[in-house]
Amino acid sequence: MKNAILTVRRQEMLAKLTTKNQITLPREVVKGFKGIEYFDAVVQDGRIVLEPVRIRPVAADLAGIRKKMERLGVVAEDVVEAIQWSRSSPK
Predict the structure, then answer these.
(1) Residue 17, beta-bridge partner list
(2) Beta carbons of 50 and 39 less than 8 angstroms apart
């Protein structure tokens, strides 16, 4: 067996990249994530890492928006600065 190449696969399953640049995950992999529709995707050390994300609706009222801004550390001055920046940017 001159120049033979031996390929050993681990017990992982294959995911397929479609022509529309979508990744199809094996059913066995997805089974453990019931109710999850979204995954945060990052590249780490040449690998695609998916992390489940639960989307929580933000209260659409002003109090809910202010609460989220506070949680994120966004202050009123940040908003004013962002508005000024967006209005001064060349179009």
Answers:
(1) 23
(2) yes
Domain range annotation of the chain: 16-53, 56-91
Residue type for position 25: L
Per-residue pLDDT of the chain (91 residues; tens, 9 = 90+): 455 554 555 567 888 999 999 999 999 888 988 889 899 999 999 999 999 988 777 667 888 888 888 999 999 899 999 999 999 867 6
Tell me the three-class secondary structure of 17-64, residue by residue.
ECCCCCEECCHHHHHHHCCCCEEEEEEECCEEEEEEECCCCCCCCHHH
CA distances 40 to 15, 44, 48, 87, Å, are 17, 13, 10, 31
28's tokens: 């066995």
0.70 exceeded by pTM = no
Q: How far apart are CA 33 and CA 51, in angstroms?
A: 10
